[in-house]
Amino acid sequence: MSPLARLVARIADVAAAPFAFDRLSRWSGWRRPAASLALASVVALAAGCGDDYHDDYHGCDPYFYPAVAVRFVYAVDLQPIAVVATGTAFDGRINEEMTSPEPGYSRDGRTSVLEAGFGRPGVYDVAVLTASGERFDWIGVQVPGDACGPFTVELQAPVQHP
Predict the structure, then answer these.
(1) For 108-141, what is each residue's pLDDT tens digit?
(2) Which pairing describes strands 85-90 and 95-97: parallel, antiparallel, or unpaired?
(3) Nearest to 73 by CA among 117, 118, 136, 124
(4) Statement: the pTM of the whole predicted model exceeds 0.85
(5) What domains are there in the chain, each with its CATH number?
(6) Is the dihedral of CA 34, 40, 44, 47 positive or negative?
(7) Are the beta carbons of 60 and 50 closer than 8 angstroms?
(8) List of the chain residues with pLDDT < 70
(9) What phi-psi label fits residue 19: left (phi over 0), alpha (psi between -120 and 50 degrees) or beta?
(10) CA separation (Å) from 108 to 31, 46, 83, 131?
(11) Which residues have C-beta within 8 Å of that of residue 156, sequence separation ≥ 6?
C-alpha cells in the first residue's frame, strides 16, 4: 500500500470514528473535524472534473460544454458531412435553438455539428431538420454532469441526402 493510500485510509478511519476522546487513538477529539476536512479535501482533489469532458485549456467552466451535440454523417459510409440544418433542444424548462461551434466554417451555412444545453445537465428532447427535409428526433436523452458542467452526449444523424 502506497504512503498516500495509507494516509487516506488513516484519515478515513479517524473521520469515521466518534468525536469522543479515544485512549487508543493518537488523535484527540478536537482534531477529528480537521481530519474529516482533510479527507474531504483529498477526495475532492482526487475526483476533480471528468478528464474525458473537460480539458486544461478551458478549465472548469460549466458554460463552455454543451449537453448535447448532434454530429452529421453520410448514411452510406458514416463519414462526417457538413449540411445545412437547424435544431432545438428542450430540457423541460428551456427550449433552445441549437448552434454550430464552427462559426464561419462555411459561407453557405453548412455545419457538421449542432450543439445546445451549455452548462445544463438534464434530460433532453432533441429535434433536427436538414435543408433537404430529413428530420431526426431523440426523446429523453440523459445528460449527466458534475460541478464542471454536463458530460456532452453525442448524437449521430445519418443523412441520406446531403
Answers:
(1) 788 999 999 999 999 999 999 999 999 999 999 9
(2) antiparallel
(3) 136
(4) no
(5) 3-47 (no CATH), 68-159 (2.60.40.1120)
(6) positive
(7) no
(8) 1-59, 103-107
(9) alpha
(10) 66, 46, 9, 12
(11) 70, 71, 73, 78
CA 49 to CA 62: how far, in whole Å?
A: 10
Nearest-5° Cα angle at 160, 158 to 162: 100
**Amino acid symbol at 49:** C
DSSP letters, 52-94, are TT--TTT-S-TTTS-SEEEEEEETTT--B--B-EEEEEE-SS-
| 3-state secondary structure at position 160 | coil
C-alpha cell at 105: 466554417
In angstroms, the CA 161 to CA 12 distance is 59
Instruction: Please report where in the chains the cell 458514416 appears, as a residue.
Output: 78
